[in-house]
Amino acid sequence: MLIADDLDKLLQILPDFVRKPLEEHSRRKTLIEVVMDLGRRPEARFPEGPEYLSSRTISWQDLNFCIKKIGNFGEDNRSGIERTLHRISSIRNRKGNIVGLTCRVGRAIFGTISIIRDLLEKSQSLLLLGKPGVGKTTAIREIARVLANEMEKRVVIIDTSNEIAGDGDIPHPAIGRARRMQVARPELQHQVMIEAVENHMPQVIIIDEIGTELEALAARTIAERGVQLVGTAHGNYLDSLIKNPILSDLVGGIQYVTLGDDEAKRRGSQKSILERKAAPAFQVAIEIHQRNNWIVHEEVDQAIDQILQGHPLLMQRRIFKSNGSIDIVCEQSISSNFSYQLNSSVKSKNLKSGIFFKQSSIMKNQDLKINSYFDKANWLPNKNKYKSYLTQINNNHLRSKDITNCILLYPYYINSQRIESIIASLQLPIGVTKDILRSDVILALRSNVKQNTKLRQIAKSRHIIIYTVYNGTETYITRALKQILNVRQMLHVDSYQLSEDRESSQVEALAEVRIAIEKVVIGKKQSVELLSRLASVRKIQYQFIDSYNLRSRSFGKEPDRKLCIYPS
C-alpha cells in the first residue's frame, strides 16, 4: 500500500515542545491524532495506545499559536489545513473560547479497497459501517478515486466537513477525477445531496457520516433515481441499524405485521412479527471492525429478513493480510444483543474445507499470493487449501453453496424454532431458510404435503428433495435431520472418490513447483527442470509459476513433456 499523509504540514502548526518529540518519534508514521487540552500535557495517540509528549502543560498562548495558523472554525467546530486531509476539531468552554484541540492525522492510503474491488465493479450501492477511527473515511476516499479514475464514472463527493477531499477550495489529489461539493452547514447536507443529483448528473454520489433522518431520506431518494451510492454510518453491526429509528430506512426500515392463524402456523412463528418495510437504499453493507478485517453482506435485503426472523445469518469475512493476499471465509452467526456470536461448529467446518478466493482477484491482480497454501515450517502443502485453489483454476466462479458447506432446509408446517434448537444442540451443519427457492431440502408434515400440489411442483422443478415426518415432535425431526445428513455424506464421498487421484497428482505437482521456485530459482538464482507431467497438470503449474512473475517453457515429447523455470 502507498500512504500519503503530509504529516510535516500538521506538525508545523504545533508548538515546538509538541512538534519536536513527534519529529523524532519512531512511530510517527502510525500517529492517529494529537490532543492538546488547556492545563494538561500534550498527548499523542497511536494504535497501541496514548503517550505524553512533554512534561510541560498547554497554556492559552500555546492554543492561540495553533489557532492563528489554522484559521476559522466552522459551526461544527472543525477546521483544516489547506490542500491536506488533516482535521482539527476544537472544544469550547461556556463562553465560546477554545480550551482544547484534537489534531487528527488524515492519510490517503492507496490500495485499501482491493479487498472489495469486485463489489465496486457490480455498480451496487455500498454502506460502510464501523466505529469512529476504524478507517471508513479513508476507505471511501480511495473508493472515490477508483470509481472516478479507473472505472471512469462521474463521481460527486458530498464533503460536509472537508474530511474526504481536504480543506480549501482545491480538493486533495487523493480523490482523483471525482468532483467535490462542499456543505456550508452540516444541517444542509441532505439539500446538497439532492442538488448534486439534479444539477451535475452524477453516476455515483459519495456521502460520509449519514446521521440524520433527512439525510437517510435523501439517500433513499437518490437510490430511487438510479444513482449508485457509497456512504458511511456509525454502527458496529448491521442489526444495530435496524433498531436505530433514524437510520433504519437505509436498510429498508421495519414494521410490525399481524399474521393470520394459518400463515403463523405455516411459518411456525407468533402472529405479531417484525418485517422489512421497503427495499434497502444500499444493496451491500460492509462492517469494518478492524482496518484489515471486514464483514460483507452482499444481499442486504435477505440479511435484514434473516435478522428479523431470528435465523442464523450467513456472512462473508474478508481479511487483508500483510503479504497482500486476501482471505474470504464464509461464517454463520446468530444475531443477539446487536452483536454476532460465531457458531463455532460452522466456522470449524468452513476452515477445514479451505479458504476460498474470488476468481477475478487471482487472475487479474497480483494481490493474492499462493504462499499461504503451504506450511512454511516444513514446506509441505495444505491439501485442503490446494483443493480450493484447483477448484478456482478449473471453474470460472464459485457458487455460494460451494462456499458454505451448509445444507439449507425449508420447514413446511413445522415449528422452525424447534428445528433450530435441535440443530444447535446436535451442532449439525444445517441452516433454516424461509425462502423455498434457496433451500436444498424441504422438511414437511406428511399430511400437508399430500394436499399441496404447488409445493411438489416447485420441488420437482428445482430438484429439491422433500423429507416428510409423521408429526412435528423432537424425535421425528431429529431422525429426519440425521437422515438428510447421511444421504448428503454418501453423495459427497462418492464424488470425492472419483476425483481423489486427480487432485492428489495436482497437489503433488504444485508442491514440486513451490519448492523449486523458493529453493532454487529464487534462493540460488538458477533455472530448474520439473518432472514430466500431463498437459492438464502442466497448465496448473504454469499458472502457479506466473503468479511469481517468473518465466517458464515446456519441452520434450508427450507423455514426457516437462516445464523449465528460469530466474527473473
TrEMBL record:
Q: Which UniProt keywords apply?
A: ATP-binding, Nucleotide-binding, Plastid
What's a single GO MF annotation on this record?
A: ATP binding
Q: Tell me the SMART domains matching this sequence.
A: AAA, R3H
**Pfam families the UniProt entry points to:** PTPase, R3H, Spore_III_AA
Query: What residue stretches are annotated with the R3H domain?
Result: 507-568
| Signal sequence, start to end | none
Q: What PROSITE patterns would the database entry show?
A: R3H
- Protein's name in the database: Conserved hypothetical plastid protein
- Species annotation: Chondrus crispus (Carrageen Irish moss)
Biological classification of the source: Eukaryota, Rhodophyta, Florideophyceae, Rhodymeniophycidae, Gigartinales
Gene that specifies this protein:
ycf45
